[in-house]
Amino acid sequence: MSLCDKYQQFLANPTAVALADKSSINYVPTLTTINQPAAIIKHLQTQAKILKKKSEKVLGAIESSDALSADVEMTVEFLSGGGAYLPQVEENFLADRMATFPMVITFTSSRSTKTRRFVKSGSTGTKLP
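Above: the chain's sequence. Below: its structure in token form.
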């Protein structure tokens, strides 16, 4: 299974078992970092309550045996606030709005095939309709 497939499989059903002990997720534009498997899963569950992912398309990817860099187009609907993508934007401005973010996802895996790190970087200056 390719790392791109593994990444998409994890996003469809995130579990702490798939993460290495010292794994982390980093949102570069907002300087948000979450460490440790349990905290990452809790973060992803919280994000699902704040925003609803409408689509996430991998536009292109480069991968090696233990790393993936993918250009991703992600469309989200903000339910209650901006989450990790727009943390300082007032909830009233974002509620029930949709936005499309161009993202670069860097995903690394350990030798034991567990996920070590996600880095999400991209423009959060996307216009809201």
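The CA atoms of residues 78 and 97 lie 6 Å apart.
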